[in-house]
Amino acid sequence: MNQTDTYAILSDAIVVVLLGSGPILALALGVGLAIAFFQALTQIQEMTLTFVPKIAAIFLGLLAALPFMYATLKGLSDKVFDLIVSGGL
């Protein structure tokens, strides 16, 4: 195993982390912006108003995105385990 193999594995791992966390982070950002916009329009400055909808949206987003996240992580782990079995690592 040389430096290019290590670089390929690390770059794949970074892509998997970004693909796994990206949808949930984008959902949290969208819900947070919508709530902030609602608070600015109505002048309701309740601190707990931001947390409950955001937590509910993140939970529902995790339920929806979990199969995609699992498949992405399984693909990377299969690739790394195949390299280990073949003696590449």
TrEMBL record:
<keyword id="KW-0969">Cilium</keyword>
<dbReference type="GO" id="GO:0005886">
    <property type="term" value="C:plasma membrane"/>
</dbReference>
<comment type="similarity">
    <text>Belongs to the FliQ/MopD/SpaQ family.</text>
</comment>
<keyword id="KW-1003">Cell membrane</keyword>
<dbReference type="GO" id="GO:0009306">
    <property type="term" value="P:protein secretion"/>
</dbReference>
<dbReference type="InterPro" id="IPR002191">
    <property type="entry name" value="Bac_export_3"/>
</dbReference>
<keyword id="KW-0812">Transmembrane</keyword>
<feature type="transmembrane region" description="Helical">
    <location>
        <begin position="13"/>
        <end position="39"/>
    </location>
</feature>
<keyword id="KW-0282">Flagellum</keyword>
<protein>
    <submittedName>
        <fullName>Flagellar biosynthetic protein FliQ</fullName>
    </submittedName>
</protein>
<keyword id="KW-0966">Cell projection</keyword>
<keyword id="KW-0472">Membrane</keyword>
<feature type="transmembrane region" description="Helical">
    <location>
        <begin position="51"/>
        <end position="73"/>
    </location>
</feature>
<dbReference type="Pfam" id="PF01313">
    <property type="entry name" value="Bac_export_3"/>
</dbReference>
<keyword id="KW-1133">Transmembrane helix</keyword>
